[in-house]
Specification:
- This protein is an alpha/beta fold.
- It has 3 domains: 5-9 and 22-196, 3-Layer(aba) Sandwich (Rossmann fold), CATH 3.40.50; 199-296, Helicase, Ruva Protein, domain 3, CATH 1.10.8; 297-401, no CATH class.
- It is 42% helix and 8% strand.
- The strands form 3 sheets. It has a 5-stranded parallel β-sheet. A 3-stranded mixed β-sheet has the order 1-6-5.
- β5 and β6 form a beta hairpin.
- α8 (205-218) packs across α10 (242-257), α15 packs across α16 and α16 (368-374) packs across α17 (379-388).
- It is globular and about 80 Å long.
- The chain starts with a strand and ends in a 13-residue tail after the last helix.
- The model is unreliable at 1-24, 287-335 and 393-397 (pLDDT under 50).
């Protein structure tokens, strides 16, 4: 190994030495779920163990990786992040390991890769689940031997880098499908941290909103305020985009509403209860928000999505027989009469959808593909609707053939 050469220090921005262990370095929130994440970060930060951060997109996986670095003995060395899913597979090797001059067309000079730039510090590999099988083999070798070569080079380079990987994918399912190496998974999964979705820690919403308001104000945007009713509505949303979605919403509201108090009517349609959306569209005063209109369970969240903005009844994807039936005089006479006492429109529309799907499945003797043709849908779309409406268990005899 005498031919090995050590990575030279890279000229990049590094964290200040002596960073204090403060909550400012950790993912924001005071819920039990996020306090548990903070405890895991502190536990693993002091060690050089490889960390695998799991969770949905927008949950703060990079924030967690940065917190681990900032609280670690490597804090004075570089923290380098690379999104493996954002770089074409043919370029990823050069991005990770660097290349020598003339190693490929356009390589007019030697270039360091992220492993060399991160020498002595932390390399954060985001979306590791999107890495190609060939690159997985090369990464595995580096994790095992701590040695690599630049593209087009022959001199082995020893590296001293801590690896933190992250993904929103289910890697164990990917292993079953043969798209992710099991040996690489075990190398990465030394210390897993699973980030909670925002809907699983709704009590953190006020604190997160305040932090985003402060951040926007620091960047020169107005300091927006939310009314209790608006906050109550937002606290019941499903937040499929998680913390990133919330951050984007607060920035949007600060631009649209300025410093005034944001009411429910000011929220984008997808966040408003259905009653407010309908009233605003009709030019009528919006009724008071009712938090019960946004049940937190998954089935109700799916029903909310069915009736939000342009997503009303995703089943009706074109001039389907269902569309014709709903526009017929018989259907209008049956469905368009609003009872004197009113009705729960979301539940009513969901019931119609469930009924039509059940009829199609019954007529096709439980064959999903045939039922999809009756509804003028793709089979995958119908399977997704079955899952979201949670009627798969009731139709356990249905076949997806």
């Amino acid at each position: 190994m005498s031919a090995l050469r050590q990575c030279s220090p890279a000229t990049v921005a590094v964290a200040e030495p002596g960073v204090a262990d403060t909550a400012a370095r950790l993912p924001s929130g005071s819920s039990a779920a996020i306090r548990h994440i903070g405890a895991l970060i502190r536990q693993v930060a002091a060690h050089d163990s490889t960390v695998l951060v799991l969770g949905e997109s927008g949950t703060g996986k990079e924030v967690t990786a940065r917190a681990i670095h900032d609280l670690s003995p490597r804090r004075a060395r570089p923290f380098v992040a690379l999104n493996c899913g954002a770089i074409p597979a043919e370029l990823l090797e050069s991005e990770l390991f660097g290349h020598e001059k003339g190693s490929f067309t356009g390589a007019i000079a030697a270039r360091k890769g992220r492993f060399e730039i991160a020498e002595g510090g932390t390399l954060f590999l985001d979306e590791i689940g999107d890495m190609s099988p060939s690159m997985q083999v090369k990464l595995l070798r580096v994790l095992q031997e701590r040695v690599f070569e630049r593209v087009g080079g022959h001199a082995p380079i020893r590296c001293n880098v801590r690896i933190i990987a992250a993904t929103h994918r289910n890697l164990e399912a990917a292993i079953e499908r043969g798209t992710f190496r099991e040996d690489l998974f075990h190398r990465l999964n030394v210390f897993p941290i699973e980030m909670p979705a925002l809907r699983e820690r709704r009590e953190d919403l006020p604190q997160l909103i305040q932090e985003f308001v402060d951040h926007n104000a620091a960047e020169g945007r107005p300091r927006v305020q939310l009314s209790p009713a608006a906050l109550g509505v937002l606290s019941q949303c499903s937040w499929t985009g998680n913390v990133r979605e919330l951050s984007n919403l607060i920035e949007r509201l600060s631009i649209l509403c300025g410093s005034r108090v944001v009411e429910v009517a000011d929220l984008p349609p997808r966040y408003r209860p259905l009653a407010q959306t309908a009233a605003i569209a009709a030019g009528m005063p919006a009724p008071a928000a009712d938090a019960t209109e946004f049940p937190a369970d998954r089935a109700a969240a799916a029903a909310d999505r069915i009736l939000s903005e342009a997503e009303v009844l995703p089943l009706l994807e074109g001039p389907a027989p269902v569309t014709a039936a709903l526009s017929s005089p018989e259907c209008t006479a049956t469905l368009a009469l609003l009872p004197e006492e009113g009705l729960d429109l979301r539940a009513h529309m969901a019931a119609i959808e469930r009924s039509l799907i059940a009829q199609a499945l019954e007529r096709s003797q439980g064959t999903v593909a045939q039922a999809a043709r009756l509804l003028n849908l793709r089979r995958t779309t119908l399977v997704e609707r079955l899952r979201k409406l949670e009627i798969c268990a009731e139709l356990s005899g249905a076949s997806e053939v």
